[in-house]
Every structure is written in structure tokens, then in C-alpha cells.
Amino acid sequence: MSDIEIKVRNGVQTIRLTRVDKKNAMTGAMYDTAREALLAAEHNDEIAVHVFLGSDGVFCAGNDMGDFMKRAASAPPKPGERISAPSGEFIRCLPTITRPMIAAVDGLAVGIGVTLLLHCDLILATPAASFRAPFVNLGIIQEAGSSVIGPHRLGYNNAFELLVLGAPWDAARAKEAGLINWVVPAAELEAKAVALAHELVGKPREALMAARRMLRGDPSAIKAAIEQETQIYTSLFQSQEAKEAFQSFIEKRKPDFAKARAAAK
Questions:
Q1: What's the whole-model pTM score?
Q2: Mean pLDDT in residue range 126-152
Q3: What's the pLDDT score for residue 169?
Q4: Domain spanning 1-185+204-265 has what CATH number?
Q5: Which H, E and C letters describe the chain, residue by residue?
Q6: 7-18 per-position pLDDT tens digit
Q7: 24, 98, 118, 124: most buried by Cβ count inside 10 Å?
């Protein structure tokens, strides 16, 4: 079971995270299901728009730490090799998607739940939405080409605040910074997101796709950033500081980075 519900109706593909008991934390199977749905739509003229949804007041709590660490430990990459993992392949597909993507965020959006939004074209959030990208806190770096898209969409200072400082943003701050378009009541969130999708579906398809392509520009810089981020991310993941960060997260304690640095000498 992938814990993702895929539905196609009237030109709109909804990708809903349904792993509510784990706050929609992403597993390898979930990444695969989402990627396959996005890529399949590239060859399906009946799908014009994607809508990402959460469930029961949660959008996405990031990676499932247990699943992520298990997969990382089972196949540690060699220096310089292309890292192939469900999360990485999902991220790699994002800049290749030609259909508009809309996200409707309620509750937690953490890690990939934030960096995914940087690839979306329209984003709605409820007043209860919260956005966190604690990559550096875990001893690693930002992902999904956000090194390039973040400063471009948010400005350097806002991108640094979100992605490096790891500051938690509420919906008002996210809107002020340009991460989201609208703050709407929870009861209206999904209906408004789907209505926006249908509005796009009703537009001339060729013009819609061309306008999006021109606004987004050449995706090669984003693709290159993804590969560079992945290599740095993987190298840092092997560091003593990252190991301490992840272990302390699992043990629910404050990390001791000074001790980790001393152990690395």
C-alpha cells in the first residue's frame, strides 16, 4: 500500500497523501506512486493539471525517518555515482513536468512538503498551515533544486531564512514571502484548489502549456542544482554531525554537535 490516492476527473489529477497516522511522512513507495502519476500524465492528453492534497489537517511531514535511514543504510552510494532512490527520482522528475501543479496545504508542511511547493504554480494554505525546512538542523542541505528556485521565488534573504536558518513560517509569513498565493479557510481549501484547477483546464491547452513554460524558463539550472545538492546531501549524510542529528531526532533529545565534531577528528 502506497498511502497515496490518485484520482483523475475532468482534466484534473489529484494526488492525495493519505498516511494520516504518520502525518503523511513520505516513504519510498509513496514517492514512487507520486512520480509515476506525474510522469504518466505527460502522455495523457486528458490530464491538464495536477493538485497535491493532504488529509485530515496535515499536508506532509517530510520523509519518514525510519524508512529513509533504512534505505540509506542498505545501499550507501559510492563517491561520485548517480544516487538512485525513490525520493531522488521523484525530485528529479519535478522540473520535467509540463502540466501546471497546484498545492493545497493544511497543517504541517515539512522538508519535501515545502520544497515540493517551490515547483508548484499556485499554492493555497489554511491559517493552520505551517512550513518548516530543517535540513541544516539535520546536518544536511536543502533539496529539490531549492538552492536555485528558493532565491528566485522568495528572494535570497527569505530563502536563507526558510532553508538555512530553518525558521518556522506560518501561513501569513509564507504569503508575505511569496511562497503561497492565498490563505483560505480550511473548509474551503480543497474546493478552491480544484476550482482553480478547473479554471486552468478550461483555458486553451497549447497556450496554457506555452505560457507556463516561458514563465518557468530553462529547467537545466534546476536539474543541475538537484544533482549537485544530491551529491553534497549524500556526503553530509555520512558525517558525524548528521548522524548525531538524526539519532537525536529519533531519541527525541537535543543533539550534541560539539561531541560529534570531536568524534570526527
A1: 0.93
A2: 97
A3: 98
A4: 3.90.226.10
A5: CCCEEEEEECCEEEEEECCHHHCCCECHHHHHHHHHHHHHHCCCCCCCEEEEECECCECECCECHHHHHHHHHHCCCCCCCCCCCHHHHHHHHHHHCCCCEEEEECCEEECHHHHCHHHCCEEEECCCCEEECCCHHHCCCCCCCHHHHHHHHHCHHHHHHHHCCCCCEEHHHHHHHCCCCEECCHHHHHHHHHHHHHHHHCCCHHHHHHHHHHHHCCCHHHHHHHHHHHHHHHHHHCCHHHHHHHHHHHHCCCCCHHHHHHHHC
A6: 999 999 999 999
A7: 24
